[in-house]
Design goal:
Blueprint (H helix, E strand, L loop, with lengths): L25 E5 L2 E4 H13 L6 H21 L6 H14 L4 H10 L4 H22 L7 H10 L4 E13 L5 H12 L4 H11 L14 E2 L8 H5 L10 E3 L2 E17 L1 E13 L3 H14 L5 H6 L6 E7 L6 H7 L7 E7 L5 E14 L6 H27 L2 E2 L2
Antiparallel strand pairs: 1-2, 1-11, 3-4, 3-6, 5-6, 7-8, 7-10, 9-10
Length: 403
């Protein structure tokens, strides 16, 4: 199961270090709103101090762009955070990490991070949450069947597995509206054969050769926000289009079943991604196939991937909820040590080839939950899924430039 990467082509040209620029020079402009080099450096330093893993350069750019859009959209709706709300958000943020507000701010100051940097981040989240509740809260519903399924899935262990098909459409620059209309048309198809035909004809996912059909996937492997979306579907039903930058995905339910194997939830997922800009697709895929056959452990990819010109290798460990959706959906199909190869179409039509390898999953035993607790969690997951999709749509349509 796959989605295209969570990336912004509009900022891909920012290849030189922003550190070489003046601290208050603009590095990104979002709908005429400036993000300065100082803000960028501060955000990156804050993420480092908070122990965030992964590519912090891309994460900082992405987060700052998102924050600008959140605050602007909220302001358009008349929503502005008060100082009391920001202080409360700071206290909650600190308590989740077992600290006081002063302790967190002192720690950040010791790392060269101004308190305003964290407060700006929290302000964006405060107004965004208020805006999302205002826009979507009345549209979220959870059925008794969804609660029953979720209770089974969130018990100490689960043997539920799901069978779906997928269609992944690339959002090509200049053709966005036509592709969105195509996605709407596909969502209205009435049969398995029609959906499979659409996958073969339009999908860019590797599953297109099989008519979009995926094998059984343990429910616990799926991204938490996607589980209620898929489990609310009846057999043959197709999901609403799920939009991200550079991609739209649709899923058709084919079955929900049980296996004799039971799996617990996961507290962390460690995985590797080898990315190669693909000028010659067949040649690049051949190189990655060689790496796929030879690599026995994730660490092997450092040496093997380095033999491919232009390859970037990243090994990351994250809580499941922090794994980007595209990567989550790839990883959902894999057991430890397994690998897949995919091609990813960017909005300008360029192609990247990726090898994805699951290193390990760290299991946890989920605590028991009441129906009321599950109802609240499912409502929040659906609300977050709507909010994330909305934000990605805002990013995709925003004017994002680099001076």
């Amino acid at each position: 199961m796959r989605l295209l990467s969570f990336a912004f082509l509009a900022i891909a040209a920012l290849t030189q270090s922003v550190a070489a620029q003046g601290m208050f020079d603009p590095v990104i402009i979002v709908n005429d709103q400036v993000i300065t080099n100082y803000e960028f450096q501060q955000r990156r330093s804050m993420l480092t101090a908070l122990g965030v893993q992964g590519d912090l350069t891309d994460r900082s750019r992405d987060d700052l762009i998102g924050d600008r859009l959140k605050v602007a959209k909220a302001a358009d709706a008349g929503i502005v955070a008060t100082q009391g709300q920001i202080d409360a958000a700071l206290q909650e943020f600190a308590s989740r990490n077992g600290q006081t507000s002063d302790a967190v701010l002192n720690m950040l100051r010791g790392r060269g991070v101004a308190s305003e940097t964290l407060r700006d981040f929290l302000e964006a989240n405060v107004v965004w949450q208020a805006l999302v509740r205002q826009k979507f809260a009345g549209t979220i519903s959870v059925s008794e069947a969804e609660i029953d399924a979720a209770l089974s899935a969130t018990s100490e262990s689960t043997n539920l597995q799901i069978l779906v098909s997928e269609v992944v459409l690339p959002l090509i620059e200049g053709q966005e509206e036509e592709i969105r209309q195509l996605a709407e048309d596909i969502s209205k198809l009435q049969s398995y054969d029609e959906f499979s035909s659409a996958a073969r004809q339009f999908s860019v996912a590797g599953s297109r050769a099989d008519g979009g059909r995926l094998d059984w996937i343990p429910l616990s492997n799926l991204p938490p926000a996607l589980r209620p979306v898929l489990m609310s579907l009846s057999n043959g039903q197709i999901s609403e289009p799920i939009e991200l930058p550079n991609a739209i995905a649709l899923f058709q339910m084919r079955g929900l079943g049980e296996t004799s194997l039971r799996s617990s939830g996961f507290s962390a997922v460690e995985y590797a991604v080898v990315t190669v800009p693909s000028l010659n697709v067949s040649e690049t895929l051949g190189h990655l196939e060689t790496v796929k056959q030879r690599a026995l452990r994730c660490d092997d990819l450092y040496g093997l991937g380095a033999e491919i010109n232009g390859a970037e290798i990243a090994i990351t460990s994250r809580p499941p909820g922090d794994v980007p959706r595209q990567e989550s959906l790839w990883l959902a199909r894999l057991d430890a040590g397994e690998k897949i190869i995919e091609t990813v179409n960017d909005s300008d039509g360029s192609i990247q080839a990726k090898l994805i390898m699951l290193c390990s999953r760290t299991s946890i035993a989920n605590s028991s939950a009441s129906r009321g607790e599950v109802l609240t969690r499912l409502q929040n997951e659906k609300l977050n899924a709507r909010a994330n999709s909305w934000l990605e749509s805002m990013k995709a349509s925003a004017r994002i430039t680099t001076p």
